[in-house]
Amino acid sequence: METLLVTGGAGFIGSAFVLAQCGRRKRRVINLDVLTYAGNLMNLAAVEGDPLYFFARGDIADRDLVRTLLCEYRIEAVVNFAAESHVDRSIEDPESFVRTNALGTFHLVDEVRRYWEKLPGAEKEAFRFLHVSTDEVYGSLNPFDPPFNEQSSYAPNSPYSASKAAGDHMVRAYHRTYGLPTLITHCSNNYGPRQFPEKLVPLVILNGMEGKPLPVYGDGGNVRDWLYVEDHCEALDVVLEKGRPGEAYNIGGRSERTNLETVHTLCALLDEFFPDAPQLPHSSLISFVEDRPGHDRRYAVDSTKVEKELGWIPREGFESGLKKTIEWYTANPGWVDSVRSGAYLERQDRRYGKR
What we know:
Layout: E1 2-7, H1 12-24, E2 27-33, E3 53-57, H2 63-72, E4 77-80, H3 87-92, H4 94-117, H5 121-126, E5 128-134, H6 159-178, E6 182-187, E7 189-191, H7 200-209, E8 214-217, E9 223-228, H8 229-242, E10 248-251, E11 256-258, H9 259-273, E12 286-289, H10 304-310, H11 318-331, H12 333-341, H13 343-352
Parallel strand pairs: 1-2, 1-4, 2-3, 4-5, 5-6, 6-10, 7-9, 8-12
Antiparallel strand pairs: 9-11
């Protein structure tokens, strides 16, 4: 059975990918996560004790640990989710983003390269390094520009996207220089269960359920292409199996919306879910706040390449995905309370030791 090393597998997208892989029973998964505020092992409670799953706490920049995991488990593919990912936090603390997204990616890919070079012929040929990136590395689009494709130039506008772009370039260089069989994916905005509440969709859901203000940056006209997280994980599985080494693939949901449209859609759904809420309609809670510095106006990616070459298309519609997301947060108040209070961090530190 193939064994994957998944880095950052306790985060939002990483944990969804781990759960999907364990559910398919095709691969064994070794999850390496340093467990920052966004890494939550409660996300993976369903696979705790699964013989096809093993967790190791650690940093992708810890080369000794990465080397040990690669050799001990005879890793056949690496999927790198490990990243600092919130733009607002990158504005406040850019150094931590450079440390993880740029330097950490370098340490990881270099250690993987050293391991890969020693593999025997067939194993070396089959090995893959999949680096999960973002559409934000391409910068911002004007309203009528065509979506970004895989040949679009990089033009990052935040410390977050700049640090991710640096990691992308390093991974690409390791393919061109050393022949490491790399794959890079650029996804649009993800949403779905288990997303940290600082992101737009869960923030609106949870604030709306509690009758709190729903903050919208600027005029709310910033456009994002929304991708349900399980669709994203399915696309990553397809890229891992069928993607051509050295190639990049854009993964989008074909669901462009302004942030204000997204918030209004969520408000209408909250009205349906909670018809007896004290403040109706929920859209009355919308509050416009000062825009953040360097806020990109529009992101959109063209997924034609992954759709035509690899046969992937998103399954989930925007509203149906949002309904599933609301249902999950409604059904999991314990997860929400633990994340908001930070109790999950205390539990993780007690079990695995403080970093």
